[in-house]
Amino acid sequence: MDDEFEVLIIGAGPAGISAAIALARAGVEVVVLERGEYPGAKNVYGGIMFTHQLLKLLPDCLDEAPFERKVTRRRFGALAGDREVALDVKVGHWRDKPYNHTMTALRGRSDRWFAEQAEAEGAQVFAGFMVSELIVEDGRVVGVKVKPGDDEMRAKVVISGEGAQAFLARQVGLMAPRLPQRHMITNVKEVIGLPKEKIEDRFLLEDGEGVAMEYFGEPVKGLFGMGFVYTNEESVSIGLGLTVHDLMTSKETLNDHLEYFKNLPTIRKLIEGGESLEYAAHMIPEYGYNHVPKLSMPGLLLVGDTAGFVNGSLYHEGTNLAMGSGLMAAETIIEAKEAGHDIGSAEALVPYRQKLENSFVLKDMKKFRKAPDFFNNKPHILRDYPPNVTQWIEDYFTISETPKSEVERNIVNKVKKDIGLFRLVKDMIGVGRSVR
Amino acid sequence: MTNNNPKSIEDKLGLLQYRTDEGNSHISVDQEKFKADPIKAILFACPAKVYEEDEKTGECLINYENCVECGTCHVVAPEYVNWFYPEGGKGVHYRYG
Known about the structure:
The complex is a heterodimer of chains A (436) and B (97). Chain A is an alpha/beta fold and 436 residues long. Helices cover 36% and strands 27% of the residues of chain A. Chain A has helices at 14-25, 52-57, 107-120, 167-171, 196-202, 244-250, 254-262, 268-271, 319-338, 346-349, 351-357, 360-367, 371-377, 380-397, 404-418, 421-434, and strands at 4-10, 30-34, 48-50, 70-80, 83-90, 102-104, 124-127, 130-137, 140-147, 151-160, 184-193, 209-217, 225-231, 235-243, 275-285, 296-297, 300-302. In chain A, the strands form 3 sheets. In chain A, strands 1, 2, 7, 8, 9, 10, 16 and 17 form an 8-stranded mixed beta sheet that branches. In chain A, strands 5-4-12-13-14-11-15 form a 7-stranded mixed beta sheet, sandwiched between helices. Chain B is 21% helix and 19% strand. The chains are: A alpha/beta (436), B alpha+beta (97).
């Protein structure tokens, strides 16, 4: 076929564009199809760009990339009523390059810039084209159907970076036909405009520094999910997410949950006086290592969210796993081409999974493989611990004439009553095991 | 709160830009199965109020032009919600993301 491309990539997100840059640079003919009007127009996430894989591709890009702030402070808070108990980590030298590989970014700008880098390397990026179907012949993906127009495009290999919905991966049976309600998390987010100085004063930041704050407990009323606040240059991204299962149990809309979170006494002041710029919703596929789909078939590789490459745990990494998987997909194809193999054959694509297993992508997901099922099976952990633990700590710091020894005895009695010592130990071991 | 700070979902959707595919919905619902569902979770689980129940007929009204393309609805009710992406270039158009 004379109009057959070597590689066709679906989706101009971090995964697809990383693959496109690496492939184009190695002289592989590559075309990217993006359904948005421009790359980034459909792309939503919480707000952190983890950059260590990006820097492998574009080592000097941090000065020119249209990112927002260097994250020098991370905060993990348990909220209950009007109480907050937090782990607050601030490291001064994270403001020095490469900024702990953690920057806030708004995808409408940053994904567009990233796709331009792929074009500069010689990849062709076509925006406004939605892939509706994979074309399979004799058990091999040989191309795609595109809308508008019902045109067909053929390629030796298709890389699907379609995103969390993974319609195409499900179409060809690499995943179960239905997405799992306990592992798909729906997030809503508002971007709220605030002046730069106000953000830096409110969040105790030097010029250009940012913060990533994540909240458990009250924001999602003890369900499986969390709230977040991330600072951009002149806006704050605030949002929360819940598994579809728990969203259905809650019987409330995500906008109601979000308004509740925004108006908590511990949160309200952070966004006060701001102007809402955009509301967005998006899903995160937190399947975990044990439920990762089959990653390839002849003529097809899955990258990024399509394959569920998300490190849920406390790290909440996604963009770096997406970029890493895109890079390894490209490497797999480049090596097959150099060896003179048919780059879409089953044998040529086998090393992809092994590369991922040998890298942070699947190693990290493997380390935390028990966490998604653990928290789903033990809903009392997220429901009962934030209110109780913060209460014990409030009691400990309450000043009165009650002798401290009595205060401590009372707290121990409360622990016994609220959770039980045996259960507390058992839960702690369980949490420990789920992240080991 | 001022207008700068919308609370209702209607006002928040008003902040968004859309390239609506007029007359061409990317969503369909099996009405009989919807009516038979005692919970009808899509009515509240959709974060963009796409689905509403017609009080007279009990049918599901589909405001597809509101859709923010998260895909929650077909994870909630795969038995009767048929949701797919709008055509290329159509649908919600995020500026910040």
